[in-house]
Design brief:
mainly alpha, about 0% strand, elongated
């Protein structure tokens, strides 16, 4: 009888623990938000850190503003979904192209893809939409900066 109770208790504990361990690697409901935050931070760093003492060009400054807005919205959406925004995910990948602006463009594309999942939280959906629009605008500004750099302006 004791053996049956012990086995039953062990199975009950196992049944309770297995679902928890299967979610151990998943940081909140939408880990894409954390990947997007890492990619946005990397893109911002690439744009903001120019070699030498050069001033940031107009398009680059506007891209940084849009990235900051997207980071703010994604952080809020992630918090609303119960994701720990202090858990910094590694970058999706290292950029293949040389040059900080090309790398920033790659990171922005990755961030856009990371947040492009279906959102069931209505409030977070609005934040997700705004962040996506900000990332799109930041990508346009970076593309304009790349064109300016290729023309030497």
């Amino acid at each position: 009888m004791k053996k049956t109770i012990l086995v039953s208790t062990a199975f009950a504990l196992l049944a309770a623990v297995v679902p928890l361990t299967s979610r151990a690697d998943v940081p909140g409901d939408h880990p894409g938000y954390l990947h997007a935050l890492s990619d946005l931070r990397a893109a911002r760093w690439m744009i903001n850190h120019r070699p030498g003492d050069y001033a940031i060009a107009r398009h680059e400054g506007e891209a940084i503003q849009k990235i900051d807005a997207a980071i703010s919205d994604i952080r809020q959406a992630a918090i609303d979904d119960g994701t720990n925004v202090d858990d910094h995910m590694p970058l999706d990948e290292r950029p293949d192209r040389p040059g900080r602006l090309h790398a920033a463009a790659d990171f922005l594309r990755h961030a856009h893809d990371d947040i492009a999942h279906e959102e069931d939280n209505h409030f977070a959906h609005g934040l997700q939409h705004r962040a996506s629009a900000d990332i799109d605008q930041a990508m346009r500004q970076v593309d304009m900066s790349i064109k300016d750099a290729s023309r030497g302006t």
